[in-house]
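WARN no homologs supplied; continuing
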Amino acid sequence: MAETDKTSYNTDDYFTRSRSETGKRSEQARTEPLSDRKPLNEPQPSAPNPAGRTKGPFRTDVKETPPLSTPEAEWIVNSRCAGLYFDRCDLHNAKVLYDLCVKTGQGTTFAGTDVILRCQLHSGMIKICKGQLADAINELGKVKTECEENIMRLERQFRAGKSEQSRDIAKASSPLEGEPTTSGHSSDAEEVHRGTAWPPEARHLRENFVILRGELELQLSVALTRQGMFGIAQQQLRKQHREFGAAWQRIMDGSYSNLDPRTVQTAIGTSRLLGLVDAYRGRFTRALVLIEEAETGLDPLRSLIETQAAQEEPDAQDPAATTPALSANAALSTQFSISLSKAKVLMLRGLYRDGLKQIDPALTSMEQHLGTSHLLSLETRYVKSSMLMLSGRLSEAKALCLDTIELLTRRFGREHPIGLELINVVASIYRLQGRPLEALGTGQTLLSRARQLLGDQNQQTVRYTIQMASINLWVGNYQDGHRQLTDAYATATGMWGADHPWTIRCLAEIAFAEFLIGRLSRSESALVKALTQERDLRGIPAVSTDSEGEDTLLGCTEVEKPVLTILAAVLRFATHDTEDALGKQKEPLQPRIPFDDIDRYKSEDVIIHPDVLSTLELWATLEATKRSARRELVVWVQETILETRKQLEPLGDSHVSTLQAALNLANTLRRDTNTESLSRAEEEYRYVVDRACESLELGPQHPLALSARQGLYLAQLGRGFEDERDELVERFLDILGAQSTRLGNLHPDTMQSRLTTFAVVVFADREQAVKIADELLALLRDDEARAQRLVEFILLEEKAALVYDRSGDSTQALLLLGRLVGEVAVRREGVSEDMNEWEVLLHGINVEAEQVRRRAERNFAQH
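OK structure emitted
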């Protein structure tokens, strides 16, 4: 071909050029030895290997040879080197060479074929790997449009009769993939031409474009999923999954020998990703079915790759013949991707032990074949660290996170999305360890970096915002947490819908935040909505009805109905008793259904999700604070949660969530002043203290252990077991000091503990009690903290006034209450949305002040 042909070449030439000329050039490109010169001054993937191959699946040996004689042959070298770089996750060098191939390919016989667009596909995939999702979606969308235009162009030319045989384009149209075969799924255009013979060259080219279009659609779905656009991704994947129906039927039947391996690989990837998206949306049974389907395609894929390799029989001394090696690596990466996705589904489902069993051997194999710094290995390390953290193995999780962050930073820099996920795990670890300063600082840094790198409309940013808000609520920044949750909920609803698991979890957190800032009616409304949506999402049956269709729980409030409905489903799992699910007699819990057969996952198992228990637990905690609470119902719910967590949590009775459930139950029982309840409360408090002290992850200074110790002493006081005065004071002061050191003086737990200590010590050591009260009142005057949790501070000050009154200092009590009446009256003015709450608060303080005043007058009259 003359040099001038490169400038005048157009895609119509596929139907007019000489077959012999193209075949000669294609053969020359395949058999000519490669040069060891660096393309565009870029290094080769690795140094020459005397043995001829590396230990892994990659061919990297390059002999010293004469310069390449054609632009096409040089293009092939660059594209294959780019593929080697990409497989090794050397994204920078891969991007340089792919861009070069796109630029120089237009001047070769490859112009107008799928191989140029395939380089652009890889360029978009590199952007996905780097986390540049918006750019990737834009680029892949343009390439897909161009691909479809080429398909339509070929069909128009076929209709116009421009399909006379002129040259052999089969090899030229796909020099990296070998002879294309059946694509495995058809389009509308194929239906039009059914029964009409396409020229082989045009048919091969068109099939290559069709295969490429499927790959582009899959990678677009990958980018959309990582961005958090699950609905769009799911819609696109379902459409593509239907199109691969014929291919899957042939795979299942064993008649897949003439399928193109790229088609099989794309079909596997589509099923795998669709399963993962279903899991993100809470559809776990369907997710596991799709993951299983993807796994069934692995053996056919390997078989097709081996057949292709045997047919081509590449020269062992020819480094250009890398197609079989690259295909083998692709099969291995597909297998690893399925293992990772399956582990993610199990993690999202809450089956952390099963997820770790799945991911441990996969990670070992990945690091052996791909290396520890490969992105697939690093992402698998992140998922493993997450499951270790959720399992309660905090030290292991933190060590793995820090090690992975170092590997990731050294290879890809500090700003990679996987690095952000690892930092999020570290923040969660600090939260579980009860270290507020570390959790707050890490979470703030993470959220700021995510907003800068990913934007507010990314799923990672939304999740980090919810996590940061939860930490803010925990440390006492109620207003900040409420604002962040409100913003995150609006974004989540727009991105995922109100029925998405993460949106529902955010709504439950909003209910808690509304409660903390004093908006009780809003809190109850949000919690009812969250409970109902949890019930619907998990497929929990509605409350049973009688023969006339009326609710059998007519005595329940609207809040209690969804609680009892969910509870009924929990108990059906726990007791295997569907008829008496709401009864009082509960049989011992049985071990959960093991993960060994997907058909055994019944609806009773699906609903026992950590989020369901967390929402139930939140309802019980808030309900227990009400004077009108149905205490028996609250205790029942908390008992059920505790026993279920003991069975489901990986660490059972020593997991943080299990100990928190036991502490919540003990606190509820202690509020019942009868001897039986106090005795049961003591048992639960001891359980928390003993398990925390035995745990290497928690220890005696963990906030849960400190709170349980204080609760135990209060329960003993309630039963009349009083220690010596000095010992009593020392115990409570010791706990308060430990909480101040671990949590800080302004932490809500420390503030409440300081008030409790004041109330206990005031009758044993008044001087010490006054000192504690003065410290408490000084902290309550902190302007920044008071702005964050005004209602809580007002209630703490009111309780401090009542302690003063009961200890005989009515003057100080009236002084504090009088100040609060004035402040609340001012706050009430002009706040119409919170008028009811402030009105109730003001009324309560006025009533307390009046009672103190009357008691003071009676005492004065008596003396």
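Residues 314 and 321 are 5 Å apart (CA to CA).
OK
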